[in-house]
Design brief:
The chain has 187 residues and is of the alpha+beta class. Helices cover 53% and strands 20% of the residues. It has a five-stranded antiparallel sheet with strand order 3-2-1-4-5, covered by helices on one side. Helix 2 crosses helix 3, helix 4 packs across helix 6 and helix 7 crosses helix 8. The longest helix has 29 residues. It starts with a strand and ends with a helix.
């Protein structure tokens, strides 16, 4: 897996750039429109987190300014009918933080402004991102509570209830509220 590339910017085209590492190897890397705007002049230094996509008939390397962008890309391409081109278009329009805000607001209209994303696909993306976020927070909070000595049976229903009432909570917030709820049950 090629996870990170650092080197000199050799060429810029649409939708890719070519980066030459200090060892002399050149990589063609697809990037977002946002990244294209912040590129240095040719010959300048570039550092990108990358995701290598392997298909039957091709290899495709996509690059991102931050690790969070790369993770968001991985989640997006994991959604049915969202390919690399659409995922890059979404990340060209929205940062991961903006995307989280769109998901928490359920704003399908914002996503339909992205080229290639219709209403149905926008709804699918929002539903999947919300489910994956909630599922990840849920699992992390339950595991955290178990490591503090609670049984899975004790904490599962409490965490589910808290996330049902406040679906936008992060792990720290959900853990804090879960601990408070479990303390009230014991007291």
């Amino acid at each position: 897996m090629i996870a990170y590339i650092e080197g000199r910017l050799l060429e810029v085209s649409d939708p890719a750039i070519i980066v030459v590492t200090d060892g002399g190897v050149g990589y063609e890397i697809e990037i977002t429109a946002r990244q294209r705007q912040s590129l240095p002049e040719r010959g300048g230094r570039v550092a990108l987190y990358t995701e290598l996509l392997v298909r039957e008939d091709m290899l495709r390397l996509c690059g991102f300014s931050t690790f969070e962008e790369r993770e968001t890309f991985e989640v997006l391409i994991g959604i049915s009918k969202v390919g690399p081109r659409t995922a890059l278009a979404v990340l060209s329009a929205f940062s991961p933080a903006e995307l989280r805000s769109i998901v928490s607001e359920g704003n399908t209209a914002a996503l339909t402004q992205v080229s290639g994303v219709g209403k149905r696909m926008a709804e699918t993306i929002l539903r999947e991102l919300a489910y994956r976020k909630a599922g990840s927070v849920f699992r992390q909070v339950v595991e955290g509570l178990k490591s503090l000595g609670y049984t899975e049976g004790e904490c599962t229903s409490v965490v589910q209830e808290i996330l049902r009432e406040q679906p936008d909570l992060d792990v720290a917030g959900a853990l804090r509220l879960s601990l408070q709820a479990l303390a009230r049950k014991k007291g």
